[in-house]
Design goal:
single chain, Spore Coat Polysaccharide Biosynthesis Protein SpsA, Chain A, 8 helices, globular
Length: 253
């Protein structure tokens, strides 16, 4: 727990047998009351290895796609009684060592959604992010800043923390089951007047880290632009909607 808040780390897994153990090993168990992995019908040993690590493991009966699997992860965190739910991919692309930082920010009650940005620091490219992906990330994020009326250095991270009150108010089960889910939930949170923030996240792209192919990345980019345009129109129709305050927090060196 942190500041009296129960914390759950939930992991949407898909073919993560090579990275799940080192991801779990770096989760601070003095902070995380529950560590829950949901395997989306991987055909490797992801679930078997995860069970050997002493964490809660759930396996989908049918493939739910990325968004569908994240929905089940978030619901599992709520069902465990968590006040703060940290979404962490088990592919070791994002450092688990930020769980205490992200949890502490939400525990203050000032914010309800925290993003771990790979591009707010200087380590994205040196950490192995492909140049084309970095440039697409940068361009999309700037366009979304304008349309959403807020400011974040990245909207495409899979490392996020949510407050219980946000997840109980926003009907996240009604959102899409594909890769746009995370940003649909972000936009729904903005429209519900929840505050967002971000931390700088060191990034490691290894051979075993997951990465969507270019065709799916392009489709996702178009979905982000469509979603942003829809929210921009919503802002025009709701002139009283306030600009969301963003707090930038850098991890210690």
């Amino acid at each position: 727990m942190i500041q009296g808040k129960r914390v759950a780390v939930v992991m949407p897994a898909y073919y993560a047998e090579k990275t799940v153990a080192k991801t779990v090993a770096e989760i601070d168990r003095t902070i995380a009351d529950d560590v829950i992995l949901v395997d989306d019908c991987s055909k490797d040993r992801t679930a078997e290895i995860a069970r050997s690590l002493g964490i809660t493991v759930k396996v989908n009966e049918t493939n739910q796609n990325y968004g569908g699997n994240v929905k089940r992860c978030l619901q599992a965190g709520l069902d465990a009684g968590a006040d703060i739910i940290v979404l962490l991919h088990p592919d070791y692309q994002y450092t688990p060592r930020l769980v205490p930082t992200m949890s502490a920010i939400l525990a203050t009650g000032f914010y309800d959604l925290c993003l771990a940005s790979r591009t707010s620091g200087v380590g994205a490219l040196t950490g192995g992010m492909p140049v084309w992906r970095y440039m697409a990330n940068w361009g999309l994020s700037n366009a979304m800043d304008f349309a959403l009326g807020t400011y974040h250095t990245e909207y495409h991270t899979g490392y996020r923390a949510y407050s219980r009150r946000l997840l109980e108010k926003v009907d996240f089960h009604a959102l899409r089951n594909d890769f746009i889910f995370d940003n649909q939930l972000l936009v729904a949170a903005l429209q519900a007047r929840f505050r967002t923030c971000e931390v700088t996240c060191p990034t490691v792209y290894e051979e075993d880290s997951s990465s969507i192919p270019f065709s799916k990345a392009a489709r996702y980019g178009l979905q982000c632009l469509k979603l942003s345009a829809q929210h921009f129109l919503w802002r025009l129709q709701n002139p009283g909607s306030r600009r969301t305050t963003v707090s930038q927090v850098d991890p210690p060196a």
